[in-house]
Structures are given as structure tokens and as C-alpha cells.
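Before relying on records like the one below, remember that each one covers exactly one chain. Contacts with other chains, cofactors or solvent are not represented anywhere in the record.
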Amino acid sequence: MTDTALKIRSASETKWDCMSFGEVMLRFDPGFGRVRSARSFQVWEGGGEYNVARAMRKCWGKRAAVVTAIPRNDLGWLLEDFIHQGGVDTTHVIWREFDGLGRNTRVGLNFTEKGFGIRPALGCSDRGHSAASQIKPGEVNWEKIFGEEGVRWFHTGGIFAALASNTAEAVIEAVEAAKKFGTVVAYDLNYRASLWKSQGGKDAAQRVNRNIAKYVDVMIGNEEDFTACLGFEVEGADEHLTTIETDNFRKMIQRAVTEFPNFKVAATTLRKATTASFNDWSAILYYQGELYQSVKRENLEIYDRVGGGDGFASGLAFAFLEGKGPQAAVEYGAAHGALAMTTPGDTSMVRVEEVEAAMKGKGARVIR
């Protein structure tokens, strides 16, 4: 019989509670204006994989590090400064020499609008030739990271894997090493059609992600992710997967864990976007044959939706690292994701006490 329990290394035998592997970009935020007509931007750092590590340190108080690549120039040092402000260790960052122009390497840029009302959020990436997209197998000493230092929870995802064939190969190298040393591998599918467009579309996305999936313990993604990246359809569900009360989602997950028995956890956020400003928000998690669903937050008011899924992924990880169990994991994840969307930028700006207060249903009265 397949062992379906999630086994996590102890804190005492490891240096890191969480390590993320992926690209960290500079986000240029025009507030509630438009990128196309902006005259000023607020600048943040962010990246689907990095956001989890940052939240693990700033919200959950865990030991977190990131593996990425950054050019040696002022934009690279700005990015490093943001990462340091987030408390994330940069020991394993790959620094690349800059040619003075950006032909050889650069920092990826992400221009993102929040959206408002009927105007949806909009992202415009400028990340070609970025330092992280050039990471290839053999550049990172995973034997040292997982074997000598020790990592409890390793998080990477489909955004980084989609950047180039070499980044997908680097992810495979990393997750193989993580499994060798008993590290939990968490993977957020995070399908982005714009990234896969030049890599071969959905066929390539499925080929790459299904190869990576063989090494994953905790698979995260929404219904589009599971369909586009793994080829698992959600029968009978509407556009926003609001019919998860039926057996359809269960059937999809059961099919996934049958094909990939290494999945210990499968989880998804459930979002119905009434407008860019109001969403229904909840989450569901599969563990050891059972489904666990979070509280549903109807008409959740959104300030900045970017990073909500990453907030969910980090809350889920925190609960499992603390031994709180699957129901707590889906509740911590959903509450943290909801709160992450109440602040600007890609990353979490809340503390664990605020997450737990939201889980207990405390309202929005002034805290004095």
C-alpha cells in the first residue's frame, strides 16, 4: 500500500525551514492607474516562488532562503536590497556579470495593474534574457543545500519552469536532489499562457510539468492549472469551479493521485471574480483520501489580487511544518491569501496573529 502521509524533516536537523527556487523580478505598480499612461510607479519585488519564502520569514517567522540569479548592476542590487528587507537569505544567489547594456543578462521587470471594478488586473512582463531565466543544471550545489545544510520544505513552480528549457531542466535537477535527502517538494503549477506561448503552448506545459510532477509531494494549482499543465479535466464545473460541492473535483484529484501516487497533498484556491474588486474566495485540500475545505469568504474586497495564491501556498506550508494537520493547512492558507490581497505588492504584509484573527472571524474594527 502506498504511504500517503507527509513526512517533514525536523527543524533541529536542518538549516532552512523553507527554500524557494525561481525568478525574482521588480514589479512596477501604477497604483489604480494604467501602465500605458502612468507617470510614476511604486516599485516592489516579487516572484511566484520567492513570495512563498518571503512570507515564511516575514509572516510565519521561519528560516527562509531563495535560490535565484541576479546581475551585478544597480537594478540587481536594488533587488537584493528588497530581498534582504524581506528577511530572506541570499547565500545561494547566483551573481552574473553585467555587460553594461543588458544583452547578456538583466533583471526581469513586471508591470502590473491592480484592476478596479469591471476593469480586470493586467500584467505586462519584460523579462527576456533575465539572469534567472539562464539558470541551467549544474549551477547550484543541491547536494550541499539538501544534504549538508538541510531543507524542510522546498518550493518551486511552473512559472520558473516555463521560462526556458534550461530552467525546466534545472527544476528537475533540484527536485531529484530534494527527494534524495527527504525534503518535502511543493510545486505550484501557476499556468501562464503568455509564458508557454513561445515554448510550445499547452502541449509543452503538460510535457514539462508531468515530468516534474513525478517528484512532487505537495501539488498546488487552480482548476485551469490542473487542466492546462497536467491534463486533468474538471467535469461539470462552471468557469470558476463553483460546483466543487459535487464529486467532480474529488474525481479529478483522485485521478491525479492515482497517476502520481507520490502526491501527498493536492490543493487549490477557489475564486469567483464578480469584479476585480470583489471575489468569492476559498480553498480545498486533498490529503490521505479526504477533502478539506476552508471557510468561504463571499464578496471578499480585493485591494491587489497578485500574490493571493502564493499567500495560500505559504500558509499551507506553515501549518504542515507546525504539525497542525490538513484542515488547519487549508484554513491558514485561505486566510493568509485573503489578507495578502488586502495590501499592495506581490508579497505578504501581515503577521501570523492577523491571520489567526481572520481565521477566528474577527471583524475589521479598529485595533487600538
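The radius of gyration is 19 Å.
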